[in-house]
């Protein structure tokens, strides 16, 4: 009997130690991650009774907490121009957690950041309510509104405008969008019902910002990087004639790569980069990809941001250039922005930023400043270098080449009189529609003015027929250039 009691005592002691250890881990070591978990409703219940800081654009709130008398909580999160900013702000929801900037900026907005420790201590001693900080974005409200309203209803599209000298994001708008107020309601049942309806909108995910999350084949817009790789290799220069047949088989295959059928590539069977770039010819990039080689090509893509982690402070999905297992044929496809070459719209904007800024990419950034409840500035992010993508000399050569598409090539429909715009277009193939219509992703990325770039602008339209994509991308780019330069 004594032996049996001893075994039970040992078992109970072990269980007690396990329980004590588990509680200690949760209380002391895992408390922060549990507190920050967006699905932690207890934390949300506590926060909903606090005056959450505002998210500001041009000094005006696009997200704010206002007093309410609905009997559940003291404050209601309200979004102004909700659809225009939905993919930036995300939502602050009792039923569905938090997303996007509402999640990334949570410590500041709730006042729990270490930057606000003095404010919390002061509130504790004075008996006043602790308040969150407000965050001013780099967004230009008029440019954001212009970008959002310019995108036609029914298209899946993104427009990004940045300052290439600082990395500040001046506009980042996407459609389709949704009303974030529908998910901020206090009724969890209504919020769940609204989320279900929003999730059924074709081409929309309320959990993703398309500008930084959608991985899309960049088509010929990637030829900016391919041309940089060619020039850096020392095997090509601006005067090197390159074979430019109408059609050429991919290496070691019987599958043809064809030139851009809508242009005049067939005019020159051997051409210099100026002609190839302006007319967006494809076949020369077979020779370029083979000459540059896999390793050098990959290294150049990485310098431009492919595969790199980035927070703006929203987390950007890394773009993909999977060269490790790529064949020579695959590399040729990736050199013209096809196959498994996948980029976010922000990535292709960073490509334009690099050329505009003498080869240096400044880190893209959405935060202008963070303002404490007593109006003192507690964070004021300075421009930060992201990478050196190429040399000033090569960037200057690309600037010269990017004039061609605007003056006499594939970007002519975006030209604005009086604005020296430099650009590259892109069209990547998508599966044909059921009626056989040719479907594509359309791109245009560039900067202006050439001699002193003030903005880098990127337009992307997904899953459209060629004519709609090409014409609309040019029209959207033209609208944004006119808005920036008051034309």
Walk me through what this model shows.
There is one protein chain. The chain is of the alpha+beta class and 487 residues long. 39% of the residues lie in helices and 20% in strands. It has 19 helices and 21 strands. The chain has helices at 2-29, 31-36, 41-48, 82-89, 100-104, 106-110, 117-126, 141-150, 188-199, 210-213, 223-233, 273-279, 284-292, 294-303, 328-335, 345-356, 392-401, 403-408, 466-485; strands spanning 55-57, 60-67, 75-79, 92-93, 97-98, 134-137, 156-162, 169-175, 242-243, 247-249, 256-258, 270-271, 310-311, 315-316, 360-362, 367-371, 377-379, 385-388, 422-430, 439-448, 455-465. It has a 6-stranded mixed beta sheet with strand order 3-2-1-6-16-17. The protein has a 5-stranded antiparallel beta sheet with strand order 8-7-21-20-19, with helices on both faces. It has a two-stranded antiparallel ribbon with strand order 4-5. Strand 20 and strand 21 (455-465) form a beta hairpin. Helix 11 (223-233) crosses helix 13 and helix 11 packs across helix 14. The longest helix has 28 residues, at 2-29.
How would you concisely characterize the structure shown here?
The chain has helices at residues 2-29, 31-36, 41-48, 82-89, 100-104, 106-110, 117-126, 141-150, 188-199, 210-213, 223-233, 273-279, 284-292, 294-303, 328-335, 345-356, 392-401, 403-408, 466-485, and strands at residues 55-57, 60-67, 75-79, 92-93, 97-98, 134-137, 156-162, 169-175, 242-243, 247-249, 256-258, 270-271, 310-311, 315-316, 360-362, 367-371, 377-379, 385-388, 422-430, 439-448, 455-465.
